[in-house]
Amino acid sequence: MIDIDRFKKINDTYGHLTGDEILKDVSQLLRSAVHPDILLCRYGGEEFAAFIGLAPVEEVQMLAENLRKTVEEHTFVQNLKITISLGIAYKHQAENTVGELIRKADESLYKAKQSGRNRVVEWK
Predict the structure, then answer these.
(1) Among 48, 53, 17, which Cα is nearest to 36's?
(2) N or C: at which end does the chain have fewer Cβ atoms within 10 angstroms?
């Protein structure tokens, strides 16, 4: 799970058109940074979900950190710098249900937000 940090503040300060441009740019950055086989989608509001499939844990961690850095280093419309927070859960932690996988990834995302944002947190 991926969430744009402090997105409401962007909308409130710069307007929804700027927020929309940032959503588009973030989605393009994310898409360009992942393999075409990875399912990447907007999950709601300013959240995105990436379903990576079977990959080694280290590879998933590296990908998540790469996504975080890619967004952090990009300059957006109106010279804005933004960050993202990411929550990771693995299939073996989800009792083979997609709903459980999403819930655990979402809980990990909330922990990333609560612990300072602009970070990757794995389900433990």
Answers:
(1) 53
(2) C
pLDDT confidence bin for 84, thresholds 50/70/90: very high
* C-alpha–C-alpha distance, residues 23 and 4, integer Å: 9
For position 55, what pLDDT does the model report?
Answer: 83
Beta-bridge partner residues of 122: 88
Q: Which of 46, 47, 73, 107 is catalytic?
A: 46
Annotation marks residue 46 as catalytic: yes
58-78 mean pLDDT: 96
Residues 105-114 as b or e (16 or more Cβ within 10 Å = b): bbebbebbbe
Identify the DSSP state of 36. T
Closest CA to 93 of 85, 84, 105: 105
Q: Structure pTM?
A: 0.93
Span 15-52, pLDDT tens digits = 999 999 999 999 999 999 999 999 999 998 999 999 98
